[in-house]
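Let's do one together. I've listed all components of the complex below, 520 residues spread over two lines.
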Amino acid sequence: MGESYSDKVMEHFTNPRNVGELDKPDCQGKAGNPVCGDVLQLQLKIENNIVVDAKFKTLGCAAAIATSSMVTEMVKGKTIEEAIKITNQAVTEALGGLPAVKRHCSVLAEEALHSAFDDYYKKQGKPNPFKK
Amino acid sequence: MKKIYLDYAATTPTDPEALKVMLPYFCDKFGNASSVHCFGQEAKRALEESRLKIALSLGADTSEIIFTSGGTESNNFALFGVADALVNKGNHIIISSIEHHAITEPAKFLEKKGFNITRLRVDRYGVVDPLDVKKAITDRTILVSIMQANNEIGTLQPIKEISKIIKEKNIYFHTDAVQSVGHIPVNVADLGVDLLSLSGHKFYGPKGVGALYVKHGTKITRFLHGGDQERMRRASTENIAGVVGMASALEICQAKMKEEMKLQAELRDKLIKGIIEKIDDIILNGHPTNRLANNINFSFKYIEGESILLNLDLEGIAASTGSACTSDSLEPSSVLLAVGQAQEDAHGSIRFSLGRWTSEAEIDYVLEKLPKIVAKLRAMSPIYNKKG
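Okay, and this is what the predicted structure of the assembly comes out as:
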């Protein structure tokens, strides 16, 4: 089964980056639910419009854990404008692809990211300018 | 790295002794059992000697054993063969809600063709209530098919009790014994079944060969159309090497059964006890005692089965999961849902199945690695922290 995953996915699955929770996150995003077997939680620290830190916790398969890990890496150092444009395709590509049945995991990662920015603007008391 | 195989319910290695016995039938004794010459006669003899071994093991007559390509074919044969033969008598078939796909899919196919299928509920251990069988029977019922042992959770069914109920009604009774033959005593008269499926590679025989027991007088339509092989019930040149290997493997199982059942049950109970002692928030799936001696199945809450499985694999331990991510459906194990388990818990299930070469050191190794893997994944799980 491991063979259906790319080396990059297995690498992030066995050695996930940024696992855990932030001390004082500026915002938190969630996606998925336990009934479906996937829950992604993403916390961000944002300073001067730049994502300076990110942490995740994920319940799910190897693909869910690897996409979570990858999205925290990709988001760090980016401005909100740049970060919000990270798509599930971009996360999938960065991981060297995902098996077809696991694509939904990358969609969850994108959802969690958008949910985090929704939360950010809500806490700022501003409308989310990127909300479609 | 150590490589520990704890997935014997998926498939077993061919026993080296059985392999030795079957090897001459590839190059030297390669004859077609239907040929008149001595090459054919040699193959025919091997075929019939193997049939006798299988028949003796099951307490059947040789004419009641039909060789097939494996468990799936045997199950398809039983359902389609009886359905076709008795279509004028009735169109109702009863199965359980925890049958293998090799039963549920043929049943679904028959449903599309106009048959009515009843899928019996099971209790929380996965046991069918014989009274439910009785209640489900109508005057249109032609066949009941209940597996002897479940492939995921190892639960054994009250086949004899169910048989007693069915016998009163003149309805055929089939059991999928793919997980049990070679592992526990299986006698067709004792069980009271009319049809029984078995598969060679589940008991240290080769893959691609199995058998269907069909009791004398049972009406069944032939499965493969072509030559006259298998008493005109299943055409195709016989897989002599496979059949010889399977019969030899079953003989070996028979000789070792008592000892292996005892040893595997001890190792099984050690693993179950160890997991319960070392890991919290788990559910033992299947019956606590009335289960196959080699089956262990747990759900680990707050984490997902595939993640556990891959981590085990990275430590050299091969197990399996019926959880979402192993199939395209993304649905958790239908067996666990049928025993009433919550979907979120069913996602975190792992099956360990032991076998002939499982050692105590291997069980100790699993008990050393598994708690660490579960702890690591739970530390990563956003729903684990939420609890007290």
